[in-house]
Amino acid sequence: MEVKQISLFLENKKGRLWEAMDVLAKAKINIRALSIADTSDFGILRLIVPDPDKAKKVLTKSNFTVRENDVIAVGVSDKPGGLAGILKILTDADINVEYMYAFVEKSGEKAIVVLRTDSISNGKKALKKAGITVLSSRDVYGL
Amino acid sequence: MIWNKEAEGMRIGEREKLQLERLKTSLGRAYKNVPYYKKRFDEMKVKPGDIKSLKDIKKLPFTTKTDLREGYPFGLFAVPCKKIIEVHTSSGTTGKPTVSGYTRKDIEIWGEVMARALTMCGASKDSIIQNGYGYGLFTGGLGVHYGGQTIGATVVPVSAGQTKRHLDIMQDFGSTILTCTPSYALYLTEAVEEAGINIKRLKLKAGCFGAEVWTDRMRDEIEKRFHLIALNIYGLTEIIGPGVAQECDQKNGLHICEDHFYPEVVSPETLEPLPEGEKGELVLTTLTREGMPMIRFRTRDITTLRRERCKCGRTLVRMDRITGRTDDMLKIRGVLIFPSQIEKALLEVKGVEPHYQIIVTRPQHLDEIEVQVETSKKIFSDEVKQLEEVKKKIEKHIENSIGLRVKVTLVEPKTLPRSEGKAKRVIDKRQL
User: Fold this and answer.
1) Where are the beta strands (DSSP E) in chain A?
2) ipTM
3) Domain locations in chain B?
């Protein structure tokens, strides 16, 4: 299964992030990873959660603008040069990274990198070709 | 269907005769019974008898909202209070409200013109009219009510702002005609979608929408989402309420009930009457109103009159959709702008919802316009780049339309006020 990411539109307003988190908390949805892109008047909150469909539903119900889309998740060894190696593969394949964020898995040995390339399938193809294991939703959601 | 074939399809020459005759009677009554009119006529050295043709109307003084306020509450009534059976007032957002008094005959006329309007929307005895205009001092609710009852349709007086009830009644009663403000209609379409109601199971055929300025794009949006024909109605409390003019299914302007309300279009600057086909301020004179005759009332609404024949068979003059108000005009860096222009530009961008607010500020001696636009699902993206592009696209469209650069801010859906009466589109924060 593909790794899904939930993103939502946040106006740059006091308390708005908390409201979004509160909706997820009340629905008992745990957050595996998140990142926020901010501009002067709005932000985009991106989340990896175990049950993206449910998260989308509860957030939409609370009047958030929500979008669900595929992202690439790869495991990177938690040592200097780990991420650089991945990015080199993409650069060599002429693939642009729109954004990315990373988090360390519980055991602490590996870092998980969430990548959004302009074309998800091309990104995956290039990584696989270079022998990188692209993680499935099960690997990521169950962390 | 035409409600009153004789009046609505009358030969123009014949109607003009009728108009002149009614005008003379009305002026005579106003001069005799309303001290305010007598004073104004005397000041301008004109007598009702000087009006020998319809063109002579330009010799008469204008009446404005301010004049009505000075006569508050009953100063412009032409009959003793015991003959007045109902009063309405305007919203009074900019000061004391203006009061409108109706005799029994006035209420009948109101029912008649509203019956014409609703018939243009396809109403008949068999219709179930779900009325979402506010009941009370606002003329919207009772205007539709009287018109529907004149026809003999079933009127469901839901009134404004009871969304849940509206949805239930729409489904359970099988309402065929919806009457409310266009912004509330849009709001209802959202509510219908949210409630998961299958539009195909609704029986709505037509909507009679008005009481605020709206656009053809908004019409398209409402029609698409509600699967009905959305027609524009026009009216104002000072003249009678809704029913002064109504669009027929040709969607080609609103037919003015000119056998009851005589229309002129004047230049907002010089106040000189403009020829048909030219854009200016609509001025209305009541021809049959007993309780409160209005002489050359300046509506502040901007429109154009068109006399070309309409395919529907009515010979009543048509007015264009109101494109703005002379007092709503924004003068930004010397350029005259109507909020409707911004709305139109906004709706040219795919996926953008017609929910917006215009904020005018003057931070450093220079006017700035910010247009807040709600982010819809359709335009939202997980990438900042994409959202910035949408923003720029909207900015470009507005700039092309009004010739001024504006700043667009994307805001969260459903955060801009959806008024159930008139949508407040402009917030002017300048200290002028």
Assistant:
1) 3-11, 33-38, 42-48, 66-77, 97-104, 110-117
2) 0.84
3) 1-325, 330-428
